[in-house]
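Notebook entry, structure prediction.
Reason for the run: the old model in the group folder had no record of what sequence produced it. Starting over properly, with the input documented here first.
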Amino acid sequence: MKEKLVLSVLVDNESGVLQRVASLFSRRSYNISSLTVSETEDPAFSRMTIETYTEPENFRQIKQQLLKLEIVKKVAELEPDKSVSSELLLVKVKAAGVEQKNALLTFNMNYGARVLDISKTTITLEFTGRGEAIDLFINDLVKDFGIVELARTGVTSLERGEGSFTDDI
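New structure, fully documented this time:
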C-alpha cells in the first residue's frame, strides 16, 4: 500500500538542478505529487520539498538515489508529527453584486483568507494552510459560490524545533 513521503532536499542553487532531481524520479517511475523549490537563507543553496506516494520499502532507496546526485547536499524525511507544513491557494470566486460579495465575505470569516482583488463579478482570495484545510475550503467554495479559477502551490515544510536544515553543511 502506498504511503505519503515528504522529503526536504538541500541542493546547490544553480540551473538544471530541478530537471536532474525530477529526472531521477521519472526514470524510476515515481510520481511527484507536489514539488516546491526556493532559495534558502544561504543563497548558495535551495530547498526542495518533494511529496510522493510510494510503498514504504522505497523510502530508503529514494533517499539514497537523491544523495548520489552531486548537487544534493542533504536529504531528510519530514514526518508529520516532527514537521510543520503549509500550502498557498489563490482562488477567484464568483461574486456578482453586493449581496453575493457580502455572502462570500461572511463565509470567508470562518476561514480567514485574505482578499486580494474585488471586481464586478469576482473576488480573489489568498488562503494558506495544511492541504486538508485547503481541500475543505475549495469544496465549500465550489458548493456555495463557484470557482472561476485557482492556482495552488505544493506543500512546503520545515522540521519542528530549533536549528536549521543547513546547520551541518
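Summary: The chain has four helices and nine strands.
The old model has been moved to the deprecated folder.
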